[in-house]
Fold this protein.
Amino acid sequence: MVFTSTLTTPASNLSQNLSQQSCKALYPYKRNHYRFEDFFAFNQAEGTLRDWHESRNILASEDFIVALIQGLEKEVGQAASLLMYNIGQEWGKQDATFFQGWFEEQYQQSLQTCRPTLALEAWWWPFTSQGWGNWEVDLENQQNGFMFINIFDSAVARTLGDVGKPVCYLYAGLFAGFFSHLIKKDLSCIETQCYAMGETYCKFLLGKQDRIDAASFWQTEGATARDIEKKLYNGEYLR
Amino acid sequence: MLTQLKQLSIEAEGRFATASELAFLTEYLASAPKRLSAYEKIHAAQEQIMDEIEADLTAIDAQAFMKGSRDVSEICRRDRKDTLRYTAAAMLFNDLSYLRDGLLLWQRTIVHAVQDQKASALTWREMPEVLRRHLTPEEADLIMPALQVNQALLN
């Protein structure tokens, strides 16, 4: 879990971290650096854990995730899901800016001119190393104003187990925030199927507000992820 | 082997390792000279191996290294060399997780992102035959498990 960006890390600390993170110090442009040993660097003196991009990380247990979600529900009731979504959205916006900086430095090409699928894989790999799960992006329907993202092994859903409803609001917000910032258009996201509903993986629909509003309405009416997909492919939207 | 050694160092903390726990080490040490020999041969012949695989692939599919009208053979050659080096190191250390976790899982997503599955699958399907020309049968057998992981993931 990314705790905070460390853009303000003093130079002396930075060089100390780099000396401990030998893989990065030796091979700063190595792209396949996502093994746990390569990606993270423990600083025992400081008691900190930093990743390849010098962001401060914390290791969070499943108990932490359960406590976070149940604590929020206790504090704000049903608004907890919206709150998690908004937290994710803000995180996604900030991470898009952060990502653009390191991607362009590491890949020596502009985010606007590179192949979108390559940039997206580059963006998600740190999340995979951090334990947020593997992903799969389906850009096929981008021209129709929506796309699907599958998450395998969601940290939130895996922790909460089968609770019979979608629970990955943080992820939905993260995708909405990141992609909105990336393409400079307001996008929303909804989880249409979730590991916590007994499915084998989580599926997110990302798109323009009208598509997401429609999907949300159909979901409330009892539509499954497959029903929603069919309706979208058939061009059904709310008017 | 490195992964197994690391695991053993954790599991045998505070006691001596048993003979069965050390069996992998005995096995590895017995095969180490052949592993080293194979590694050095691949290192020495890497450019020739690249030329041969390129010729073989082009014979199978003349468009193997073309993306539309763009010739990407130099990029493919660079990536093949990197992967072969990792593969040889995985054989040397007898550590497939080094190969899988350190390179292939990442590379698989990049191959899919740039839609190079076809050339990639073809490359690692043909590579065993090319390497057999440079190694003894015993040395070739040692690198086959790593090549099979490449085949399974880079397609």
User: Anything to note?
Assistant: DSSP finds ten helices and eight strands in chain A.
